[in-house]
Structures
1.
Amino acid sequence: MRYRFIKQIIITSIALCCLTCSKERWFAKITYEGTVYYSRASMKPVTAGTWVYLYACERGKISFSCDYFLVGQAVTDANGHFKIHDNAARTDEYSVQVIPDSLNNAFRGGFKITGDQLQTSDWTKLYLGGY
């Protein structure tokens, strides 16, 4: 009887650790898609092969710091379109990075963007060269 009780405590402890220690939400997904352009002025989409990375914030030891981990990545098609579909982060705080063939125009998106904000035109249309 005592052995059975100890076994249940150990199994419950392991299960709780697995559920609370993960960086990702187990059953929630996030879809982030959009188009990458060379600039706002030209509105010309980038060529195929530009990589888009979606990072999420994992809380650091200090409340204002953030360690980012990769949620997902995608490569643009011939129209500059990309789509990332993967597990959502527990913190719901994201960052976007675009790396074209030429690193001169690399784009590093804002920090602490929420999942809802990723769906707005501010983040579905990404511009490498600014204006």
2.
Amino acid sequence: MNLINALTRAIDEPDVFISQSTTRDLAWPGITGYLASSLSFFVFFGLSGFIPFRFFSFFAIAFFIIAGNFFSLSMIHLFLESTGANGNAVKLFLFSGIIGFFHTILVPLGIMTKISYFGIFLSIIAVTTAALFFKIWTIRRLYNASRSKAFWAISAPYLVFSAAFFIFTAFATAWFLWVI
């Protein structure tokens, strides 16, 4: 299945596409979605002036997006499997890549932030929130989970990461004050 047909089926009849697609059907659209998402973040942050337009910057963003999704989706899959919802982790990873096509909206938003029409923070929050809603919808379909279970499955990795960051910051501050 080629990329355009897969994306057309995913948009036109998403329930049928989720239930009838195999991992082989999803491989090309999923990986291309991760690359499109990485390129969109690269252009957005480049236009905003946060990163230089260099190959290493694109490679770093792509690495963080793929590694972050791999880590968070593995936690989501473990949470859902431990609560009794059965699903396919590879399909979840590839569907998350397909949802990455939604991040291409960041490119026109980056142009609008360049001319000071939108704020950078507002643009990222709006696109990320919409992508999280699509991930919740996808988890509900892939794992036959309730809305609340899908919400908590999505929220758990972010809450764990936020708690770990807070604890690290608190210990680093305490250590820094102790050294002084």
3.
Amino acid sequence: MSDENATTTTAPAAAANPTTENKGTSEASAPWHSGYAERLSPDTYEAAKPLFEKYGTEEEYVRGMGEQAKVVGKKGLIKPGKDATDEERGAFFNELGRPEKAEGYAWSPAEESKFHIADQERYTEAQGKLHALGLTQDQYAGVMDLYTEELGNLLGKMHEQQEGWRSESEATFKQEWGEDYAREGKAVMAETEKRGLREVLEEAGLINHPGIIRLIKDAKDGTAEDAVEKSEAVRSIDAELDELKKTDAWKNARHPDHTKAKAKYQALHRRKVGVS
């Protein structure tokens, strides 16, 4: 059989695959970000959807996010607004370098400052307040260093002032009291103890103030003088009472002046009670 007589059989054209066509049509009509619906939780996807929809394709979205990252990097951290939550402000402060908690601050006073924490409760309270203000670790350490420096300066000036008072008192009262200086000094301190003032004056740094010493000495001397005067007044009244009791007017109830004698006795007795 020759080639000319050969029958050529042509295979029928393949029918279009309706499944493939439908799939292509579906993918073309679905938004580019629909695939994220399977990878993200429903809530997250819905929240991000407005952002996705700003871009026509995923490539545009990626480029846009990259540009935003550059802008944020140039601007640095954005300070929370007045309506920000405590959590947002806290996150901002922590990002700047604040410890997560107030007790996370680390600081040690300089050795020469001789600073020590006398009241741990107040110190802890101050830490909390500084933490609430958003101080970073470095800022906290700087504030504490400044505080101890200023406190040291203040205490130094107070010490100088107290030494000045002590020197002034010593010079003044040595001249006034002469040989009685040591004895009078001890007597003044004893009077201070007696009145319960010594501890208060020492804490206030006034124990050697010349005005305070003079005031206490005057009070001490005044007390002694008052006691002498009172005892003399009592003796005088007692003497009058004794003389009154010797009179007939006092002894004889029928005496015309007996009532007067009784009234005088009562008056003298009231004076005695008032003096003593």
